[in-house]
Specification:
This protein is about 80% helix and about 0% strand. It is mostly helical. The longest helix has about 35 residues. The radius of gyration is 19 Å and the shape is globular.
């Protein structure tokens, strides 16, 4: 029996709502698990995984889910409020990432280890630099008059697209971090695979959200 267009639409929105709710849980649950594992304060290194998990799993994910039509915690607020909260969360994510990067670099210096020689280290460095550039670019949306030759719609499209790339870089960095000796020594078997699914799930949810909000809509206008 074929489903009607209305039924398909309801099913689709229900699935997106369920996926968004799961993303909220993962965004909070993943850094909580990392905090239990790392025991922040037990060593200088222990702050690095926690800060990076907070930056790219919790703060950045929530900053993007703010605009979700199904699961935004500010769904009943104006877009202006959502934009301000988004910018504040992104700024906090950047600060956590910079602090996490600085601490791991200092820790390696103290232990006489080489800097940024692994894929995780290189991807992490690239991600933090990219996030800094993305936050700077976000100022153009707060003050669009700075870019007089660009329409606001085009600025939003480019910001959303480049932001998605930055978020995927962050998820990739987290996944590479879970391949490190520190993580694999403590998390093994099914638990390791479940941990790897966390950034994968949130990245798929964010990709779907951004694609539906900007990319698919833009394509349908042509």
């Amino acid at each position: 029996m074929a489903l009607t267009a209305e039924t398909e639409s309801r099913l689709y929105h229900s699935l997106r709502a369920a996926a968004g709710a799961a993303a909220h849980l993962v965004a909070l649950g993943f850094p909580t698990a990392v905090a239990v594992l790392a025991r922040p304060g037990s060593s200088l290194f222990s702050w690095h995984p926690l800060l990076m998990a907070l930056a790219f799993s919790f703060l950045m994910t929530e900053a993007l889910l703010i605009f979700s039509p199904e699961t935004s915690v500010l769904r009943n607020f104006s877009r202006k409020v959502k934009v301000r909260v988004h910018w504040a969360l992104q700024l906090l994510a950047l600060l956590c990432a910079l602090l996490g990067l600085g601490l791991i670099a200092y820790n390696k210096h103290l232990n006489g280890k080489a800097h940024f020689v692994t894929w995780h280290g290189l991807t992490g460095l690239l991600t933090v630099l990219y996030a800094a550039g993305q936050c700077t670019g976000g100022l153009l949306l707060l003050y669009p008059k700075l870019m007089k030759n660009w329409t606001l719609a085009k600025l939003k499209l480019y910001h959303a697209t480049s932001g998605l790339v930055g978020y995927l870089l962050g998820c990739a960095s987290l996944m590479l971090g879970m391949c490190s000796l520190w993580f694999t020594a403590s998390v093994t078997g099914v638990s390791w695979y479940l941990a790897m699914l966390c950034p994968l799930l949130t990245s798929l949810v964010i990709m779907n959200q951004v694609s539906n909000a900007y990319l698919y809509r833009k394509r349908s206008q042509h």
